[in-house]
Amino acid sequence: MACVLLGLGVFSQAAAADKLYVVERERGRLAVVEEGRLSREIPGLGNLNHATVKFLKGFAYVISRDGRLSRVDLSQDRVVETARVGESGIGLTFVGDAVAVANYDPPSVVVVDQQLKPLTTIETGSRNVGIQSRGNLLVFSLMDKDQVWVADANQDFQVVSRVPVGQMPFDAMLAGHSYLIGFFEDASIGVLDLESGSYRTHDLTPGGETLLKIPHFGLWGKASQAVYVPGVKQRCLHVLDLPDLTYRARVELQGNPVFAVVAPGGQFLAVNYSGDREDFVSIVDLRTLQIVRELEAGRRVMHLRFSADGERLYLTSYRDNKLKIFETRGWSLTETVDVPGPSGIFLVPAE
Questions:
Q1: Residue 290, burial from CB neighbour count under 10 angstroms (0-12, 13-18, 19+)
Q2: Would you state the pLDDT for residue 4?
Q3: What is the reported pTM?
């Protein structure tokens, strides 16, 4: 493969072709990284602590913590529309051609079109989390009401189901037609079947052990046949088989895990840590569930992301102000890119 020499080492043409969007958390910007360098910064995106970035039809949609929804044209890498949809936004999803935003404040879910024009507001009387969609259904959890609501886009987003669930739901994810709900107060998962409407709970206490806290589902690793749950304050990963969430195994780790990220193809998982191991990343071989490499990756690793082909691991080092790139054959560092205060890493998915 033809290659060019850049920075620390050899930067392949495949790596150079990747285009990344990296959150500059303290500056309210997205850094655009292409061909191994910071090519542009997109300003004016609001408070990007815990920001969410998602992509649809050539645009990025960014919801800030202070309720600013921005639409970014990916061909020009600039903001083309902005709308205030609340005072405290927590997540977004797409339902057909609409964009739905879950708010903490005001207690509502706001639905807009792709140009950010308002369509409807669903008043909930609660902080709202775990917003997901499947087909024409919009699903979200009401943290303060212990419920999940389902709205139908084909009925002007009327709420068609209100399901009582466990105490204080605080995040959720989709696995097929199942909406999996995590609760703040107990170590169980709620499972809402979006086809049948049935609801059940699944205990996550293997061998009588109590999990101290179920982390946000955005931190879970997910493969086609399993999910990998960071055991907060337990220094482990819990492996659950899909679709029935059968407990399979526990993987001992070197620290308190934060993000667990599965490589395309499902061979490896990368996990970073908080606290005394925040500078390290562990690589787990998912065939053996053994740690095969420990990377001293940078000061305070904030986020991880594999390339679409699985050949590179991207990570952000917050205190080093760098995006770092590792190749996944030998796990050597091949390139660094200067990015101020970097956190979340986002790649545009193939459409």
A1: exposed
A2: 33
A3: 0.90
